[in-house]
Amino acid sequence: MKHSRRLLLLPVLLAFSLSAVAQAADPIELHIQLKGLQKGDRLYLAFPDDNRTDTLVATRKHRADLTLTVPKTQEGFLYYLPKGKTREDLLQSEVRSLCLQPGDRLTVKGHLSALGKAKVGGDLYEGHPYRDYFRALDTIFAEACVYSDSLHTLLKEVQALPESTQGSLADSLRGEIRRLNDQSWAVAERSYRTMENFVRHYPQDPFSAYVLTCIRGSKFEKTRQELFDLLSPEAKDTPAGREMEEYFATNRAWKQADSLITEGAQAPEFTLTGIDGQKVSLSDFRGKYLVLDFWGSWCGACREANPYLRALYERYKDRPDFAMLSLALDRDDAAWREAVRTDSLCWPQVNMCEEPAGPTSVNVRYGVSLYPTQMLISPDGQILVRQNGFRPDHDAIAARLEELFEQP
């Protein structure tokens, strides 16, 4: 599945100090000293959690300062874009991860050309045992950069080739690409082991709750639940602890729904806001055969399936007993709307992200984890077909509709 590109960053621990009693409204002071930085140069601080980017302007040579507020302790990525470069051009080694905790005073020192290796100091980074912990992760991160940057460069070179030669060259380099990718993730797993060890050593420390949110991947699913059970009540009552508790509840709800959303089951009711601002409910389509398409603008496989869905819709749109509804999972509302326009999706569209993520969200109640997923709902609300992924040469929904509408 091809996703829209973002900063190429392996998961890195970004957490908050337990000794601090900062309030969410307390400002953060960020003092940056980078050789090569000139007055007027711009640095950028990206916040993945908020989908926002702040700009820092150097007020004098080698220096840039920023006072900011964040609603909670969260990760940020500091980077610089030379003229003519975009975020997609950045190497992982050119980005410095930061832990931004309300009330902290942080310093970043290094060279502009090697921003990813800059030294971070200040309240959290100099406290025990967090100082040694961050240093261990920095060492792992530096090793990961060797593989991820090589992979990034190799893929950019392939993309720059004429289309007529890309296929054959990509085939010849497939082994090297796979090797670099495997090595990158092997190093990432080492970082997860480091996080796991920290939680096991300090389960009473609320810091461990945030550490736990940074361990990802299905391979560590059982371990995450085990580590969460070790946490003290104080750690579980932090924002990170409550986030993890909701994550496990959501995962349980998804697994239950995944086993229940089968052919013959009743489709769960929902109400969402359409792209035109009007409310859309499942019950609005009673009396019709309804195709539900779960997709996202970021999902390459979904975008490739859209022309086939459009053809299916055109084929049956004039029938009074047929309808189609696309349910996107898009945090970026503008990207969703642009994809709808670009792909000419002329049937009703809703975005499931208007609801908070959690056990009761629509995609969880429908047991959807693979995108795209399509379902065919009967006129009385029963699930007739569920297909995960899309293959135009094996479209079970199109085949079922043809049986229903075109065969005597």
Automatic annotation (TrEMBL):
Signal peptide residue numbers: 1-24
Subcellular location: Cell envelope
Sorted UniProt keywords: Cytochrome c-type biogenesis, Disulfide bond, Redox-active center, Signal
Gene Ontology CC: cell envelope
One function term, GO molecular function aspect: antioxidant activity
Primary localization: other
Alphabetical GO biological process terms: cytochrome complex assembly
Organism superkingdom: Bacteria
Family annotation (InterPro entries): AhpC/TSA, Thioredoxin-like_sf, Thioredoxin_domain, Thioredoxin_ResA/DsbE_sf
Domain Thioredoxin: 261-406
PANTHER family noted in UniProt: THIOL:DISULFIDE INTERCHANGE PROTEIN DSBE
Protein name per the record: TlpA family protein disulfide reductase
